[in-house]
Amino acid sequence: MIEIVEGFPEGVIAIAGKRCVTATDYDTALIPLVEEALEHHRKVRLYYELDAEFSGVDAGGVFKYFASWIRYLLRWERIAVVTSSLWVFVGMSAFRLLMPGRVRVFTARHAADARGWITAATPA
Q1: Which residue, among 41, 11, 30, has the nearest Cα to 119 in the 3D structure?
Q2: First to last CA, the chain
Q3: Where in the chain are the domains?
Q4: 2-119 topology per CATH
Q5: Which strand (E) or helix (H) includes residue 44?
Q6: Per-residue b/e over 17-33, b at no fewer than 16 CB within 10 Å?
Q7: pTM recorded for the entire structure
């Protein structure tokens, strides 16, 4: 399930992944948010928080996940991923090397740092 996280400025898409994320979650939550933000901004930022109950992404969700990254590859300015899961931390740390924008992975206890970094006016 994907939920919108409130309290972020325009141009920052903020979501939380809970339990298992599906292709339907991407279709109904994330992709419409990205498309709407890109109508108003040349590049956007993503804050993606994965809570302690996050168990992964189903097969359809994996396809949608990679399809959305590729589709908007050059439009991501900055991505902050917050997780308490070691496998997500390691996986996203490796994946960030493939992204043209800035990607940082934060542990859950550093969520405030992630929020500060994703909303900062200048690159950190």
Answers
A1: 11
A2: 30
A3: 2-119
A4: Transcription Regulator spoIIAA (3.30.750)
A5: strand 44-50
A6: bbeebbbebbeebbbeb
A7: 0.84
Q: Determine the Cα–Cα distance for residues 106 and 72; give it in Å rounded to an integer.
A: 22
pLDDT digit of tens for each residue in the chain (124 aa)?
Answer: 889 999 999 999 999 988 878 878 878 888 899 899 999 999 999 999 987 777 767 666 565 666 666 777 788 899 999 988 766 777 766 776 777 778 898 999 999 999 999 999 865 5
Query: If we measure between CA atoms, which residue out of 45, 36, 39 comes closest to residue 12?
Result: 45
Characterize the bridge pairing of strands 12-17 and 20-21.
Answer: unpaired
Residues 6+ apart with CB under 8 A from 100: 73, 74, 76
Two structure tokens written together for 95: 């994946």
Place of tokens 């040349």: 42
Q: What are 66's two structure tokens?
A: 């990679």
